[in-house]
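Quick log. Single chain, no ligands specified.
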Amino acid sequence: MSLNWWTIPTQLGVFKVNCKRLACLLVFTVSVCGSAPGMCPTTCICASDIISCTNKNFTRVPGNLYKYMKRLDLSYNRIGLLEPEWVPVLFEKLNTLIVNHNSISSIITGSFSTTPNLKYLDLSSNSLKTLGSPVFQELKALEVLLLYNNQITQIDSLAFGGLYNLQKLYLSYNSLLHFPLDLYVGKHKLTNLVLLDISFNHIQLVPIQRLSSVPAKQLSGIYLHGNPFYCDCVLYSMLIFWYQRHFSSVVDFKNEYSCLLQSDTRGHNKLPLLHDNFLNCSESTVNSSFQAFGFIYDAQVGDRLIVHCDSRISDAGTHFVWVSPDNRLLEPDRETNNFKVFPNGSLEITDAQMENSGLYSCTAINKKRLLNETIEVRINVSNFTVNRSHPHEAFNTAFTTLAACVASIILVLLYLYLTPCPCQCKAKKKKRKLNQSSAHSSILNSTMPQELPADEKKASTGKRVAFLEPVHEPKHSQNGKVKLFPNDSITTESILKTTRTKSDSDSVNSVFSDTPFMPPT
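-> predicted structure:
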């Protein structure tokens, strides 16, 4: 058997190759590679490190895919449950996984253990109803998570636990009833989250006071439009504040913010929330919202005040500059009077004075990103007359006021329940009138008075004076005198009762004339 040799020129020289052996090597290589795992399935489209297996009725990920793929598209299939075996092979280089428009109704813990390096996960347009905890804990490098257009009504507080690199979360067009506050506050908050889309859900209330402590870098990416909010001045003030800060979540979707009146339970009449201030909110309510979000600061004379430059540009290399109301430039590491600017942009006023009040401007400059932002903060310094260093004085004042109120109530009750009966007062007044009439009759009548009853003797503490005058009346004529009584033998009481504590002479003179009456002998 003869061998055919061919000369192959190369840059390094000339090699002689046996054609028969070369053909055998090529056949062996093709056969080995064809039978090895990691080939592109005939039903999918493979382009370099991208594989598209859309609309192929898959219920799980094929096991013979390229191991070095970085993007896998499984949209429009029939995947209904995510469990630990739904991705049978470890794909360490996979960073983008698209599983939208399937029938996924549940996610079990450990479903992403074979895709630990995902950065982009799309689970939108499925049938998810709840998110338990923790279902994404293996995805430490995840940055973007799409869950919009599902049926999610409840999210566990730890559902996104461990996603410390998550930057964007899309939850729009679901059925959420509450704002996911655990994403911003608490032990498992996501500090790198700069975009949260919860638009077009069923959220009616927003925890505005809790959100006031969230940095502007995160607040600027909260999209709330399309929710059936109740008309509220505090919510209106917060949105106006965001609008003035030029947050794109409000500026770009201003017409999508509407609210319902408390009386409109069925939601028939949606009112525009950010148009013409139809709520007629007071200026104090709006200012209180600005104050809660760090736009207005109040201080007293002598206080130490720290004002934060809450800029959306907070990357490394950002330089902060403050401008005072009198146009003085305040920069870090350069103290000016009682002002000091820290490298993170915070402004410190060591001893606040009345002349420090006014509008301050903070400018954040990032030269690498060619970005800058200016924030205006108002500081109000007032001189409060009460010394706030002695809180016990305020307590004493409050206690004294409370004691005075209690004493007044007791006096009113004593007056209402311990006063004498009106009937007794009327009886005493009537008896006094009778005594006065008896005194006058005793002056004109000479008949001997009868003895007073025993109870009247005890009740009287004064002297009793009686004047007796016999009546000599002619039978036929009056002799010019007036006859007081029609009957001859009428006896009237002649005892005067008085409770005066004066002397006898004073008592007599206060009732009778100066001329004494002398009885006839």
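The longest strand covers residues 371-382.
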